[in-house]
Design goal:
124 residues; PH-domain like; 3 helices; four-stranded mixed β-sheet; elongated; alpha+beta; three-stranded antiparallel β-sheet
């Protein structure tokens, strides 16, 4: 995932900025996707606060009540979501809503969730 984010940033920021044929308006227009990609990269993370998981993904912020989590599954997925790795944890919560995350220490993160909600089913 890091290759995708940094490649996007390189293509949309560095290459247009080095070209003398682009107008300043075109450079600014092309820089926006690159800057958004960097913003998503540097502002993706997860915290457990007051029995909720706070998920940050660029400008987006999600809250998942840990008591609403029904199931966690280990998964590999390259699709877009608030995760910077393809090695992810899928979270099914409140009425079949689903989100994927990729904490650095998955086992510790799951242990913390189980302390709060021991009814979570874990699929490996």
């Amino acid at each position: 995932m890091s290759m995708i984010h940094f490649s996007t940033a390189f293509i949309f920021i560095v290459l247009p900025a080095r070209s003398k044929d682009f107008s300043i308006l075109l450079i600014i227009t092309l820089m926006i996707p690159g800057m958004i990609s960097l913003f998503m990269w540097f502002r993706t993370g997860y915290k457990i606060i007051n029995e909720k998981i706070i998920i940050l993904y660029g400008p987006l912020k999600f809250k998942v009540n840990i008591h609403d989590i029904q199931r966690l599954h280990y998964m590999k997925s390259p699709f877009v979501g608030p995760a910077l790795s393809v090695d992810r944890i899928g979270i099914t919560h409140s009425k079949s809503k689903f989100v994927t995350i990729s904490p650095k220490d998955k086992e510790r993160f799951i242990e913390e969730l189980l302390i709060i909600n021991s009814n979570i089913v874990i699929d490996k």
